[in-house]
Amino acid sequence: MKIFEKKKELLNSINKASQIYIVAHKNMDLDAINSCIAFSYYLKTLNKESTIIIDDIKHESGVKKVLEDYSSMYKAVKSKDVSNTDESLLIILDTNKQGLVQNSELVDQFINIINIDHHDYKTSSIKKGLSIIDENSSSTCEMLTEFFEKEKLELNSKVSNLLLGGIVLDTNYFQLKTTKESFYYSYYLMNKGASMEYVNTLLKQNLDDYVKRLKIIASVKKRKGIAISRGKRNNIYNKEELAKAADILLTFKNIKASFVIGRISKDEIGISARSMGGIKVGKIMEKLGGGGDEFEAATVIKSQKIDEVVSSLNKIIKDI
Ligand SMILES: [Mn+2]
């Protein structure tokens, strides 16, 4: 579903809201924060003020840079400082799962909700309010760009950079989930002044993180086009590191799906899975207590050794 198809309902909710909050998923990435700031820009053009809810304490470097570079363009609060009434509106971007929202209680706390997202819509997805989900879109930023183009919204280079940043991140430089629309809207944004040079600065990696990721990748074992890598037994990784390694594995020749396994806390092993679409990684992760869609999925397994997790994963993969 496209945003413009629901324009009437969208504007209706926005216009009658006494105050508007915008929130994205936990551990924000560039698609999350950039779509929040771009949406608050759109609201400003409608003469509506909005506030972004951010509970994340640590930000990855691109998100940190955006929060600094765009500090004059948004207002942010922590969820504990949200003062909503029955007339307040909550706009949830870049996730449709209550448990993934910065603070999941917000979904219960608000009566009026609009959810705009590009991830798989499931029975477990947020059912409250207006849901605009476009699973064919690469990113929330691509969805917003499409809407803004239809609306003939004036876009300056700063806002265009935000939107392009989200598209480039979620497509991993036009390699994943990339359609002709992803190219078309990127072209559109570059015509409005977006620069790959700026986007590249947001996506620049830290060398130490890169080396750490290479070490995980170097452990790869391949079987039938599926790449499986694992972290060191006693190292603790964050989930994003596992996800990035899985993204990278998918860029190689003849790799249809990737799984990266690593310890994410003393008692938890995480798996991050990626697929070109043919191998349903969401289904595989469900078998291990997690979930996701056909392109991206993950799980967290408690009280097991990394070798045990690797062998259960191998068993499931053998059967597909
Ligand atoms: Mn996204």
Distance between the termini: 31 Å
User: Any idea of the CATH topology of the largest domain?
Assistant: inorganic pyrophosphatase (n-terminal core)
Number of helices: 12
CATH class of the largest domain: Alpha Beta
Helix-strand string = HEHEHEEHEEHHHHHEEHEEHEEH
Strand content: 15-25%
Shape descriptor reads globular
- The CATH superfamily of the largest domain is known as inorganic pyrophosphatase (n-terminal core)
> Percent helix among the residues?
40-55%
The hetero compounds bound to this protein are: manganese (II) ion
Q: Mean of the pLDDT scores?
A: 96
Computed over alpha carbons, the radius of gyration is 20 Å
Poorly predicted sequence stretches spanning 5 or more consecutive residues: none
The count of β-strands is 12
Strand order of the largest sheet: 3-2-1-4-5-6
Number of domains: 2
Description:
This protein is globular. A hairpin with a 3-residue loop joins strand 11 and strand 12 (296-302). It has helices at 7-16, 30-45, 61-69, 105-109, 140-150, 157-170, 180-191, 196-203, 207-218, 239-249, 281-287, 306-318; strands spanning 20-23, 50-53, 76-77, 89-93, 112-117, 130-133, 221-223, 226-230, 257-265, 268-275, 291-292, 296-302. Strands 3-2-1-4-5-6 form a six-stranded parallel sheet, with helices on one face. The protein folds into two domains: 3-203, inorganic pyrophosphatase (n-terminal core); 208-318, Roll (Diaminopimelate Epimerase, Chain A, domain 1). The mean pLDDT is 96. The protein contains twelve helices and twelve strands. It is an alpha/beta fold. Manganese (II) ion is lined by residues 31, 94, 118, 139-140, 170.
